[in-house]
Design brief:
Distance between the termini: 39 Å
Domain Aminoglycoside phosphotransferase: 57-314
Shape: globular
Number of strands: 15
Structural class: alpha+beta
Helix content: 40-55%
Number of helices: 17
Protein name: Aminoglycoside phosphotransferase domain-containing protein
Amino acid sequence: MDFDGRFALDNNASFLSWIRRYDDTREQKPTEWVSEFHPGRLTCKHTTTEKLKDNLGAYNLSCKVEFENGEKWIVRFPMVGKVLNVDEKIETEVATMKLIRQKTTIPVPDVKAWGLAADNALGIGPFIMMDFIEGISVDRILQNPKARIMRQDVSENVVETIFRQMVDFLLQLQKLDFSCIGSLASGFEADSGGFSAMVYSRPLTKKSHDFLLDGGVDVFAPRNKTFASTAEYFHHVIDGDLQHLHDQPNSVDDEHDAREKYIYFNVIKSLVSRHVLPNQDTGPFKLICDDLQPTNMIVNNEQDLKIIGVLDWEWSYAAPAQLVSTPWWLLIESPNVWSYIDKRLDRFNRLLELYSRILAEEEPKILGEGFDEDRKPSTMLQACEEDGRQWFHMILRRGFNGPASVPFIKLREQTKDWDELASAIPEEEIEAFVSKKMADLQKYQEQLAEMEERYKVTWNSDLQDWNPFLSDNRRLLVIDDSRRQWQSWACFN
């Protein structure tokens, strides 16, 4: 399923406005501001004078500073146009990192300081300052430099060394129990019976965020909403898929595609009850991160391959334990992005066998012999492999899916009554949906053409003032202020 091209233009214009402000701020040497957060108020400097060498990720821009005593920090800002709900994202991520540092041995960076948008005197949004970890990114070792997939020439010993440490981290997270599904805020509680974290707000998932950012469709629960059961949460996620399918005007390509997607997502909704594992519905729930994968980790060197840093804890939340059992990241990119079955799936399955073996070997060491057999990740993983549940999980965790993607193909193969479930969907519902989507698609194409012309005019202008373009978009796309929260922060007024 494609992104909404109108919001892609709006996001890019927002980013260009923000990055210009960031560049101006960097030229003014914001190191004095950073020094205010150091316990000793030590002076610091950028480790490079070239702003192009700042680390530009998918969601965040980071710069490195060095203090007069040699201490190094990373200062990280969510990028406008790449991230929405930025204050919420930062608060959740910091709470998660602090929790993990206190309750596990996972090498999470030490958060030195953080703040919401209103706390940033520079006027470029919320921030996190953390210690800089010197090492080598795992993606340099595992990832094909020309594609987001694992290199063919990586030895099994290297993969096993990385995977074994990854399993160790995941099993440590399994020891943390939560009473409901949602994201952490700025606090947690502990009692004499063990650790019990407080979940304060809705799950801030990558999928819901991407639907809003790239599709313009808000499927988030209300801010203070948490979920008490796996079934309730799964229904919420699939309802979000259906809302996204209905509300994003270009969510279908043509009449056939509209028909197929409507049927597929409605069948998947009917499968929720059979894919909730017995005795797992009401928890305890486990900490999950939608972007926790080896390529977001740092090793000490290419010989030892000891992971010394686990980064990027945004999109973390307490979730159904069974979701943790399905490792989508084995080949780096998720099978959700594969539009047909080929040799990649064979590689994925071989790596899944390796992962399963390591998991069975490491469980007794970390969870102990007395851990409930039904709740062991290896037990849940086996159950997920046997009836297509792992593909159901992948559809739940990633957005912009479609009937041609591998998880849909495999789930249909392993759902013996799929055709029967599909035939139960009323034909008049399908026809009404198809008719609506064809009208949506025509209006979308007209609006996109108009926006592309306005974007081109601004891009080719001398000043490149994006404010008129963004202002017109607010009317055209019915965008509320929360999408461009950075423009209404007090420090800009």
